[in-house]
Amino acid sequence: MSTTDRTRALRRSMVSEARRAVVDGGLQGFTIEQLCERVGVSRRTFFNHFASKEDVVLGIELHADTELLAAYAAGSVVPSDLAPLPSVIALLIEQLHVAGIDRTDEALVRHVFEREPALTARFLSATDTQIAKVADAVRERFDWTEPDDPRARLVAEAAVGVVRVSAATYFDDDFDEATGPRFDELLESSLRLMTAAISTPAPGGTP
Q1: 102: DSSP letter
Q2: Which of 73, 75, 102, 119: disulfide with 140, CB 3.0–4.6 Å?
């Protein structure tokens, strides 16, 4: 196992253990020191990866995608001939290939929010921050440098819509993971549907 894989596995272990602790006893039911002891890491190691107890529960890692977004902004990671929105979806698929996705873990997250609904505000704030980071990367990649140019933000927000629609299908209780499409296939399908919907003419040919 490479150093990167070991680091990723360690982060997953901390996140999973923190989420189980919240479900069992709430956010105040454990300390960072207790979490570190359960996972077998030092407090210093914890803060190398997460800024707070709330962040480890939500899986908000410090600098987790900094290098990937920088590479994307510089024109690599995904094919250079992709249009802005398809390029962001391709970037998300690349992240999925690296980090993976787990329907069981998603169910655990739902239990976390049921136990600690106050975490929703932190999650939404982190989501807004991430969208802004993606928009900045899009802006740099496509040289949309004018301060009042909204295109990069629109692309990032549209990508979020594609992810949400795809996730609603993938994480539905009736979804059969064994026979259904992979999440990256759902993303690609949702992107095609969005593109087709945007270009669909109004009834009767009226603009």
Answers
A1: -
A2: 73
The answer to whether the CB of 191 falls within 8 A of the CB of 91 is no
Q: In 54-90, which positions are buried (b, 16+ CB within 10 angstroms) versus exposed (e)?
A: bbbbbbbbeebbeebbebbbeeebbeeeeebbbbbbb
Residues in the chain: 207
Q: How many CA atoms lie within 13 A of 99 on its CB side?
A: 18
Task: Return the closest-CA partner of residue 50 out of 5, 17, 92.
Answer: 17
Q: CA 193: distance to chain centroid?
A: 21
Tens of pLDDT along the chain (207 residues)?
A: 677 778 888 999 999 999 999 999 999 999 999 999 999 999 999 999 999 999 999 999 998 789 999 999 999 999 999 999 999 999 999 888 777 777 778 888 889 999 999 999 999 999 999 999 999 999 999 999 898 999 999 999 999 999 999 999 998 889 998 899 999 999 999 999 999 998 888 887 655
Q: How far is CA 52 from CA 16, 73, 127, in A?
A: 15, 28, 16
Contact 103, 171 (CB under 8 A): yes
Backbone angles phi, psi at 172, to 5 degrees: -65, 140
